[in-house]
Amino acid sequence: MRSLLFVPADSEKKLSKGLAAGADALILDLEDSVVPGNKPLARDLARAFLQGHTSTADRPLLMVRVNALDSQMVDADLDAVVAARPDAIMLPKSQSGADVASLDEKLRSRQATHGIADGHIKIMVVATETAKSVFNLGSYQNASPRLNALTWGAEDLSADVGSETNRNDKGLYTEPFRLVRSLCLFAAVAAGVEPIDSVFPPFRDLEGLRRECEEARRDGFTGKMAIHPAQVPIINEVFSPIEAAIAAARAVVDAFAAAPSAGVINLNGEMLDRPHLTRAQRVLKRIR
């Protein structure tokens, strides 16, 4: 997944517009973008949208961000959407891998009720929205076979910490939030799932978005969440390997394939070892 676009689930217009945005995944949001009084409407519209599009060819992945486990709303969210077979559920404000295990159980029982194959619905986690959660990032390994991605959030975390801002006067994350971003990257890789970068709130600043996407790709993130359709083309472009990178990666893979017993190879005057092969394989994995 390169681009994951949030769409408020209580707006039919925005749902329809989101479908045409070109994102790899749509996140039908039942949480922060929906006021409490609109939650029932959002559940109904999300279910109808899923029913209308899950069987469509060439569609984006369709996931639903439910409310947090301690919100007293998550069961109603799941009861509304599971039967419509979303591709994934996004769990916000997760505190640890134990929360993923709890969500797994909720999904398992509902899938069985509706005759859906176990494991069909995946789980993506927003893993850093409280200070407490940061200390549990290592707990997602083996939390659930459904887990397929971790992402991080700076806005809720900033509110929880009480920071005046999470960005400096140049628009860059301040040090506490850069640390959390890095820890989430490491946690995702350790868990064997996709690391997805957080949103870029100033959606009209496309130059800033491009810079942040390029930094995220450089560091190892495989995609980025979006809050506006205008952000999607840039995210897709930056997280798609360019031809030169693809050719270089193939050359590394081919060189190691030609010398399967070698720990180190010489390619164009450069000594390469197994980490270079792993990095090249990851580049090729991102080809669509």
Explain what you see.
Helix 2 (39-53) runs parallel beside helix 3 (74-81) and helix 10 (243-258) packs across helix 11. The protein has helices at residues 12-19, 39-53, 74-81, 97-113, 131-134, 155-161, 175-191, 206-219, 232-238, 243-258, 274-285; strands at 3-8, 25-29, 61-65, 88-91, 122-126, 147-151, 194-197, 223-226, 264-267, 270-273. 42% of the residues are buried. Helix content is 43%, strand content 16%. With 288 residues, it is an alpha/beta fold.
User: Number of helical runs?
Assistant: 11
Distance between the termini: 10 Å
Helicity level: 40-55%
Question: Which spans of ≥5 residues are poorly predicted at pLDDT below 50?
Answer: none
The total number of structural domains is 2
User: Hey, roughly how much beta strand do the residues contain?
Assistant: 15-25%
The counted number of beta strands is: 10
Give me the CATH superfamily of the largest domain: Phosphoenolpyruvate-binding domains
Mean pLDDT: 93
Largest sheet: 8 strands, parallel, barrel
Tell me, briefly, the overall form.
Answer: globular
Descriptive key words:
alpha/beta; TIM Barrel; 11 helices; 43% helix
Topology (elements, then pairings):
Layout lengths: L2 E6 L3 H8 L5 E5 L9 H15 L7 E5 L8 H8 L6 E4 L5 H17 L8 E5 L4 H4 L12 E5 L3 H7 L13 H17 L2 E4 L8 H14 L3 E4 L5 H7 L4 H16 L5 E4 L2 E4 H12 L3
Parallel strand pairs: 1-2, 1-8, 2-3, 3-4, 4-5, 5-6, 6-7, 7-8
Antiparallel strand pairs: 9-10
Helix pairs in contact: 2-3, 10-11
